[in-house]
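Hi L.,

You mentioned the student needs an example of a multi-chain input paired with its predicted structure. This one should do, with 694 residues in total across all chains.
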Amino acid sequence: MAASGIRLTRSVRAKPCRSTSVKQVLALAKPPRQQSVLRAVATAQPITVPDATKFDFEQYMGSTAKKVNEALGVAVPLEYPEVLTESMRYSLLAGGKRVRPALCLAACQAVGGSAEAAMPAACAMEIIHTMSLIHDDLPSMDNDDFRRGSPTNHKVYGEDMAILSGDALLAFAFEHIAVETKGVAPERVLRVISELARASGARGLVGGQVVDIKSENVEVGLDTLEYIHLHKTAALLEASVVCGALVGGATEEQIERMRVYARGIGLAFQVIDDILDVTKTTEELGKTAAKDLASAKTTYPKLLGIEKSKQVADDLIKNAIAQLDDFDPNAAAPLVHLAKFIGYRQN
Amino acid sequence: MAASGIRLTRSVRAKPCRSTSVKQVLALAKPPRQQSVLRAVATAQPITVPDATKFDFEQYMGSTAKKVNEALGVAVPLEYPEVLTESMRYSLLAGGKRVRPALCLAACQAVGGSAEAAMPAACAMEIIHTMSLIHDDLPSMDNDDFRRGSPTNHKVYGEDMAILSGDALLAFAFEHIAVETKGVAPERVLRVISELARASGARGLVGGQVVDIKSENVEVGLDTLEYIHLHKTAALLEASVVCGALVGGATEEQIERMRVYARGIGLAFQVIDDILDVTKTTEELGKTAAKDLASAKTTYPKLLGIEKSKQVADDLIKNAIAQLDDFDPNAAAPLVHLAKFIGYRQN
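Structure written out for the whole complex:
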């Protein structure tokens, strides 16, 4: 696979990805002509975090997850053919922090929109996330038997049902937005659909997943690593935030701020994932530690060292929060706390 | 699997499917209280086929396929990561009659719309059809090595890429409609998206595929057979026609007529498929003949006999064409000929 890996790296260098890179994104808020994330974040300005002492983040996440779980349960009922809808619900209602829906609802709130208007889009984010996990776990992909301590979808329902459940969930996400989003201009709903579809496909998480697979056991550079994480992880976080903002009636400038915010926390999420893999035990993580080392995977700590990686993550989070400076501090408090939650998580 | 098969059959009987059944659909044009397709079509009225002596169907299909192929090639360019987009294009541009896009464009034309407005939706129909073929061919599904004489997607690109290509195509279909449909009211475009998404998911082709898989080597009744074909085959044909009509500015009554038309030809398509499997040789079909018999699959000829099955198909086609009586005969000529093409095909 070495040849393929080299080609991938070259491709990334030879032609810019269609989607704006972190560099370009950070450039919106920074002096021009920065050449890498590292240099970009190194010049981050001091940030003003809205005073949100009264904001109870745990309570917010708990009540949001509850509402999202209820909405998901209603959106995907158990119906004929039961073997299919049961399999869809098995993975969809398996718990989790519901970070993507929370980001979507919080972004909507940050621009003055209502949670009701954003709930279908918020659910769609979780539906797409779930389908990507079901397919990623398949034997021909990551071949995982367990997820969050439970057997993976294909271990319970078979590989054929797992593939079909993922397909059904993917299609349903768009139907759900199109049919259930109320009180929002249809042009905006169409933008939400195209934003999410793009984030889900070849120019989003599928593209990231493909480059990740083809980079296994291959030395790749920072550009390719960034491509993988911006697409595999950050794209759906970005869609979550941008779609919430779109539904909430954001201005174009607000949408672009939200985009920078989301890419920052998306990339930071992955840098931190790499750091935790090296620094934490399997018990602390709740999943196998040192997995990246075992699989000879390229990571931020390997490329930059742990201290520098921590600095990158920290700067990305600070820069993300700085994007929210011009928003109402109270309305933006959930987004600020979500960034910190991602930036300072320990597992 | 016998227990599961029995349960499925019972479910179909115990509770009506959410989507309107053929019976209900035919009832729109027929006296009420018909209980089965057979009885429904037995009472079909004499039909008036628009005089379309000047219409060159072969030329129409050829030029339509050419335009659709060009549009598909532009819609899904070869770009980074090339292994993914090459795999998507491999299956998408592998030829075929492009029946679904033709139905979409013809339906748009039948209500006075322009082909340009319907082209993104027409492409989306083929994109969804292609993704369903890629996933159906997978080892854990039908495990097919060849399709139209060429190796299946996973035989060329591997199982992981085939799954991911299908996912990327599915997501892209909705993005393409949302971004590229021009000159159509956004509310209509949203209806197109929800119509197609529904047809692609658990209440459409994925649902049909699941019941088909779970009915293998199980004796199922006519209700279940109808469910399978209405969902696995007819749903996407229906979406093609209805979405074309929606984009073309059809009235609600025209849309319902189109829906009945499409369900009729969709079900007829499958009845004829079953008949051809019994009556034709492998050479004549271009695929393995008598496959259904070998796999102990429930088919229309098995349930009704060949002659009765032929009568059902014929009546379904005639009833479909009868739905077009109130349309301008010239504008509707392509739809009439498409119905005949499906009804009287020999392979």
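You could point out the following to them. Residues 1-51 of chain A have pLDDT under 50 and may be disordered. Residues 252-279 of chain A form the longest helix (28 residues).

Best wishes,
N.
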